[in-house]
Amino acid sequence: MPETAYVILFREFLKKSTLRVAIFRFLSYNIQNIGIIRLTLIFVKFNLIRTLFRVSYQVISLAPVESGIQTR
Predict the structure, then answer these.
(1) How much is the pLDDT for 70?
(2) Which keywords does UniProt give here (predicted)?
(3) How many domains are contained in the chain?
(4) Which of 8, 18, 19, 46 is most buried, taking the most CB atoms under 10 A from its CB?
(5) Range of the domain at 23
């Protein structure tokens, strides 16, 4: 019975390999899914960057207002 990619991924974790090595092994056994996984990663990164930008923008826009209130 051939091993599934998930069994290989789990075994890599048991060997205490780094996450990157485990994911790379997982991808190498799932070559047909690399396009889908890449799109998912790009989407996740885009959402993360957008969220960070939104939070930092709110902090920057609130900073002058707070300092103005404190000086008066």
Answers:
(1) 52
(2) Membrane, Transmembrane, Transmembrane helix
(3) 1
(4) 8
(5) 5-71
Q: What is the pLDDT of residues 16-60, one digit of tens each?
A: 666 667 677 776 666 656 666 677 777 778 877 778 777 777 666
Q: Long-range contact list for 18-21, CB < 8 A, 24+ apart?
A: none
CA–CA distances in Å: residue 61 to residues 48, 53, 57: 20, 12, 6
Return the residue matching tokens 């969220």.
51
Cα torsion 3, 29, 7, 4: sign = negative
Complete DSSP assignment for 16-47: T--HHHHHHHHHHH-GGGHHHHHHHHHHHHHH
